[in-house]
């Protein structure tokens, strides 16, 4: 049986539209890893930030935060569209798409 993303439902029978991860803004990401921890799939990967990649200036974050790492979308086809990564991100890095 072929999965149909347009006919997703909650257990209670309420129609539910997945929000699939589209991209992560490298200029905003501080490499905190929160999104990785909440993702139940192998979608995201933390990588070393290239020296040439600058971090967007922002004073509302702790200066001690790790900034040498960068979260990336490793396997977007494994995303189930739960949206948890975006909800936990303190920097609003994520963009999503719907089916
Ligand atoms: S939407 Fe869900 S499954 Fe997809 S990357 Fe985010 S946390 Fe993982
Ligand atoms: S939660 Fe946001 S800031 Fe933290 S690693 Fe993920 S994308 Fe980057």
UniProtKB/TrEMBL annotation:
Please verify whether the record's keywords include Coiled coil. Answer: no
Which SUPFAM superfamilies does this entry report, sorted A to Z?
alpha-helical ferredoxin (SSF46548)
Q: Which cofactor does it need?
A: [4Fe-4S] cluster
What does the UniProt keyword field contain? 4Fe-4S, Electron transport, Iron, Iron-sulfur, Metal-binding, Nitrogen fixation, Repeat, Transport
Q: Which Pfam families does its entry note?
A: Fer4_7
Stretch forming the signal peptide: none
User: Where does the 4Fe-4S ferredoxin-type domain lie?
Assistant: 20-49, 69-99
Q: Please give the PROSITE patterns that the UniProt record associates with this protein.
A: 4FE4S_FER_1, 4FE4S_FER_2
Task: Give the molecular function GO annotations.
Answer: 4 iron, 4 sulfur cluster binding; metal ion binding
Which InterPro entries has this protein been placed in?
4Fe4S_Fe-S-bd (IPR017896), 4Fe4S_Fe_S_CS (IPR017900), FdIII_4_nif (IPR014283), Fe-S_Ferredoxin (IPR050572)
Q: Which NCBIfam families match?
A: fdxN_nitrog
The task this protein performs is described as: Ferredoxins are iron-sulfur proteins that transfer electrons in a wide variety of metabolic reactions.
**Annotated protein name in UniProt:** Ferredoxin III
Where does this protein come from, organism-wise? Thermochromatium tepidum ATCC 43061
